[in-house]
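hey can u check if this looks right to u? its 529 residues, i copy pasted from the old doc so theres a chance i mangled smth
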Amino acid sequence: MALNTTTFANSMLQFCMLIVCILHVNVASNVNFDIQTYLDCLPKHSSNAINLITNVIYTPKNASFLSILNANVKNLRFNTSKTPKPLAIITPLEASHVQASVICAKIQGLEMRIRSGGHDYDGLSYVSPNPFVILDLFNLHSISIDLASDTAWVQSGATLGVCPSVGTGGHFSGGGYGNMLRKFGLTVDNIIDAEIVDANGVIHNRTTMGEDLFWAIRGGGGASFCVILSWKIKLVQIHEIVTTFQVEKSLEQGGIEIFDQWQHIAPNLDPNLFIRVEVSLPKKTENENKTVIFKFISLFLGRSDALVEQVNQFLPLLNLTKDECTEQSWINSTLFFYGLPNNTSLEVLLERVPALGLTYEKHKSDYVKRPIPKPGLIALSKKLVEVENVTMQFNPYGGKMSEIPENATPFPHRKGVLCKIQYLCNWKENSNEVSRKNIMATQIIHSFMTPYVSKNPREAFLNYRDIDIGTNANKSLSFAQSYFKGNLIRLLMVKAKVDPNNVFSFVFVKLSILSYMDTIQNFLENVVI
């Protein structure tokens, strides 16, 4: 990578000066807030609204405050009496409500959390240790489709079919993926425009916001830079009939051998074929031997005959049969991946509350770039039995994902990635001891996997928010390098340019100038100027 020395030096100087501004505001903002002053400010900046903004403001004095707050809390760990509560919740019905919320937060120096679906693994879209308000976008959920151009405008509060509790605002802006990522790439690879409200309360589209900001919000976490009102996305054409299967294999049935074969071929398969592997310890009675199960779960954009032929050619140890496959429409396949019976009404996909119920949860992520040796797989199986309640989900990459450069969007996990791991731990018990045990179990498995996953940095998926990786409150940016790798410098420069007062403090909050300089120094040591 070659850079012009003068241009780069000037950019760094400008950048550092802007960071000082951010730091100054942060120091001044750590005070107690008079929420009434903020509430009084809102109507003054939404005078042209069609709907009165006072009708969409909820404070602890409102009887419906807790129901509005908890309606979009998807992780029960953050729905307790000890969880920090916002001073107010604004549920905008139109863009002017968002503009007023941002302007008044800036004037008052009040921290704002932006929530579109609430499917936030560590609750960062609706929890803060500082005085804060929530801008909850669930009312902004319209979808406008233009079949002539194969495009659609989707508001941030609209939720996904395959995971109904996930809002597009966070999903898209964090580099969200689906089961067709090997064919079509990520959400961010199919966004062609956006409507946002910036730190000054001004509405922009792609043209007026500029390409740097448009780049940043497609994988860099939109809530660090602006409020996303809506996205314009490119629609894709898929087969009328798709095929799914789920085949389970125990250790005794050769689960490790089949997984080993899968990890060597999955990224190189036909992009129409996606085969996920889930490894977990099923619930057993006390009299049964504990053993892990390998679930091979697939979506194929085509008919079952072609699927069986491909799988048995490249993954013969699975010994897939046509009887194990189900042909259906793509929309019905979302029920399959959601874990619901095929005859379930599609109306369930419109529900914002998960059909399978809420749980206490802990999630983590990793990226695998080399096949895991068989001895490692054997040891992993034993470790999963030991901790009992952790599921590992291996999602294959390759295909379209390998064709897109790392710096095309802030999402850097592209060529060379074999698969992404999601660590999942869910429990129903409302117990501090159970929570501690399960969180620790997830951390144990994550730590065990250290030799087998990406390094320098150990990469992580932004949408699987995980505060164990680190936060910017400890004067370090190593956590951000895990999410963004070499794209971090550009993201920081965009942040400093578009939000020098740090109005949007979702990820880049309370950053230390020393942390920035360390990051810049590390960057300079690894770049040719």
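The first helix runs from residue 5 to 29.
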